[in-house]
Amino acid sequence: MRLSMKHMALLISLFGVISFIFGVVAENYKPAAGTPIAGTPIAGTPIAGKGVVICKYPSDPTLPLGYISLATLLISVVLGHKSVFFPYEKKAVPKNAIFGSTTMTVFFTIAWVTAALAATLLLWPIITQHLHLSNTVHHIPDYACPNAKTGLIGGGAFMSLNSALIWLVCLMLANNAREDYFEEASRV
């Protein structure tokens, strides 16, 4: 089966929406903070002589959902990039014909910037939360057992959706450039 622009548009949209959904769900399941235990009768107050705070975080699906959101964002971006240059119906178009208009160049750049911003907003809290979960023993008596910043995964989810939509605009602009190129080629 040959891939058409409609297939590529559906795939880009599908993975963009999946990234958005998993990012929003990950943000909603993220706990507000961990609970200091073992050696502290009250949160942040160490037992005399111990001087250690051990943080125990409740199990939550934030990290797996965040990783899925990031993976589907990357798939959407790769498909979006490939869709602009893909030789549909085995007819390739030179890059200078695709980027002949300033509009295409601007939207292509915006698509990459929004994809990078979405990846950053998803990666930052995922890495931070991963570090919090793996480093649970702290020798600071007033340690508060924080979580990753609230809102970043959700923001990354919305930027993932924006990125997919802008890749769709790039695909439409590339389709217009293809039609113009083949129309001019048939005249000559």
From TrEMBL:
It is found in: Endomembrane system. InterPro entries: DEAL/Modifying_wall_lignin1/2, DESIGUAL. GO terms for cellular component: endomembrane system. Residues 1-26 form the signal peptide. Keywords: Membrane, Signal, Transmembrane, Transmembrane helix. Its main location: membrane. It is a multi-pass membrane protein. It comes from the Eukaryota. Pfam families: DUF1218 (PF06749). The chain crosses the membrane at residues 65-85, 106-127, 152-174. PANTHER family: OS07G0462200 PROTEIN-RELATED (PTHR31769). Belongs to the DESIGUAL family. This is MARVEL domain-containing protein. It comes from Spinacia oleracea.
